[in-house]
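Shipment paperwork, digital attachment
Item: protein structure file
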Amino acid sequence: MAQKSIYDTDGDGIVTEKEISLQERIFELEAKESKSETQKRMARVAMWSMIIFTIVLFTPLMSDSRVSALGDLLGLFYIAQASIVGAYMGFTSWMSKK
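Attachment content:
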């Protein structure tokens, strides 16, 4: 029995140019969707990490001296995480206008 091709969408055993272009378009859209979901997940993790880290800083788990010692590092952390979230929001907005 012949192996069915993924490009043969109507199942007639003949692969046409239209079927090939349709399947390539589907692959392209799936790749874009996967990339978009990954970017969304990355932005959510960045946002939640800032929220959770801020909550931890205000609990008794972190002493004032330790927070003061890590001050410069904390600033860089927040800038980096906010940049990820901002870039995601900006590129999402930009892409929706295209």
